[in-house]
Structure formats: C-alpha cells, structure tokens
C-alpha cells in the first residue's frame, strides 16, 4: 500500500539518491562521489534547520517518489504580507510508477503544508513531462517579468 510521509534528516541519503536518479534521467547528474556526498550533507543540514520540507512515497518498502519545498523569506509585498514563498523542488517519481497519481499526492502534501506555514505562493520550474501535473494543480505562468539567471562562475559578459 502506498504511503506518503514527511521526511527528516535521517532520510538524507535516500533523498540524495532519488535526486541523483532524477538528474541522471534528465542528463544533469554528476557521478562524482563528492557531489553525492554534498547532496547528502545538504539534505541533512537543511531538513534539520527546517528551511527544507520533503516527502517520500513508499510502496512495499520501496521509495517510488519524492518532492519538497524550500521556504524562502522575501520582503513583504501586497499579496504576501508575510513575505514567505516556497520553491517546489526535487519532484520525482520512479519511471515504472508514473501516471499513478504519486506526484499529485506529494504535491497535495506540499501544498497543504505550505498553507499551514502561512506561505501564500508556491514557485517551481517544470520539465515538459511534469507540466500537466502542475497545470492540473493550478500552477500557471503568471509571474512578473521574464525568468532569467546568471551563473557567477562563467566569464563576464
């Protein structure tokens, strides 16, 4: 029977493994042992600190999905006087269990938890494969401006 449960620092290794599986599948992973070690330490530290909240879906002892949020404080703005936002991250379902509603169950847990923390806005970046899930859950391209980034380790423009 499928169980979706909240994780804690004891689950850091499992969360790191699932994140690596996700990254390998999308071609973004590093197989460097130092990277895997850094992931495990990051999950331990941030789950303990309480600025990351994560869930895993387990079926018959096997982890089949995960997802979480990073809570980010910002200056208050009109629709968000608390200034809290949460970035949905690490959403992943193992390939042989996709399209069974596992991601939706995890996303529902994330949404309810964010509401309980007083977070009025969830943000995320979706793969094309995940877009339908998020649109069904009410996410849309309603942000202000254009999403942009800059890697600071790159040569200056």
Task: Characterise the protein shown here.
- This protein has 157 residues and is α+β, with helices and mostly antiparallel strands.
- It has a single domain (2-136), classed as Gcn5-related N-acetyltransferase (GNAT) (Aminopeptidase, 3-Layer(aba) Sandwich), CATH 3.40.630.
- The protein has four helices and five strands, in the order E-H-H-E-E-E-H-E-H.
- It has helices at 12-26, 33-49, 102-116, 131-136; strands at 2-6, 52-59, 62-73, 84-93, 121-123.
- The chain has a five-stranded mixed sheet, with helices on both faces.
- Helix 1 (12-26) crosses helix 2 (33-49).
Question: Could you give a quick summary of the protein structure above?
Answer:
With 157 residues, the protein is α+β, with helices and mostly antiparallel strands. It is built from four helices and five strands; from the N terminus they run E-H-H-E-E-E-H-E-H.
Q: Characteristics of this structure?
A:
single chain; 157 residues; alpha+beta; Aminopeptidase; 5-stranded mixed sheet; 4 helices
Protein topology:
Elements: E1 2-6, H1 12-26, H2 33-49, E2 52-59, E3 62-73, E4 84-93, H3 102-116, E5 121-123, H4 131-136
Parallel strand pairs: 4-5
Antiparallel strand pairs: 1-2, 2-3, 3-4
Strand content: 15-25%
What is the averaged pLDDT score?
92
Major sheet size, sense and barrel closure: 5 strands, mixed
Distance from first to last alpha carbon: 53 Å
CATH class: Alpha Beta
CATH architecture: 3-Layer(aba) Sandwich
With helices defined by DSSP (H or I, 4 residues minimum), what is the helix count? 4
How many domain units?
A: 1
Order of helices and strands: EHHEEEHEH
User: What is the tally of beta strands?
Assistant: 5
* SS class: alpha+beta
User: What gyration radius follows from the Cα positions, in whole Å?
Assistant: 16 Å
Strand order, biggest sheet? 1-2-3-4-5
The low-pLDDT segments are none
CATH superfamily: Gcn5-related N-acetyltransferase (GNAT)
Shape label: globular
**Helix content estimate:** 25-40%
């Amino acid at each position: 029977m499928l169980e979706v449960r909240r994780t804690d620092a004891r689950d850091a290794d499992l969360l790191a493994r699932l994140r690596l599986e996700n990254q390998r599948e999308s071609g973004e992973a590093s197989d460097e042992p130092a990277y895997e070690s850094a992931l495990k330490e990051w999950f331990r530290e941030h789950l303990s600190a309480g600025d990351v909240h994560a869930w895993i879906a387990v079926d018959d002892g096997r982890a089949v999905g995960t997802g979480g949020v990073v809570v980010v404080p910002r200056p208050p703005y009109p629709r968000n006087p608390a200034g809290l936002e949460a970035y949905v991250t690490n959403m992943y379902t193992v390939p042989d269990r996709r399209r069974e509603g596992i991601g939706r169950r995890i996303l529902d847990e994330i949404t309810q938890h964010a509401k309980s923390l007083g977070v009025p806005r969830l943000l995320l970046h979706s793969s094309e494969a995940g877009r339908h899930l998020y649109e069904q859950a009410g996410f849309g391209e309603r942000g202000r401006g254009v999403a942009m980034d800059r890697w600071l380790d790159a040569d200056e423009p």
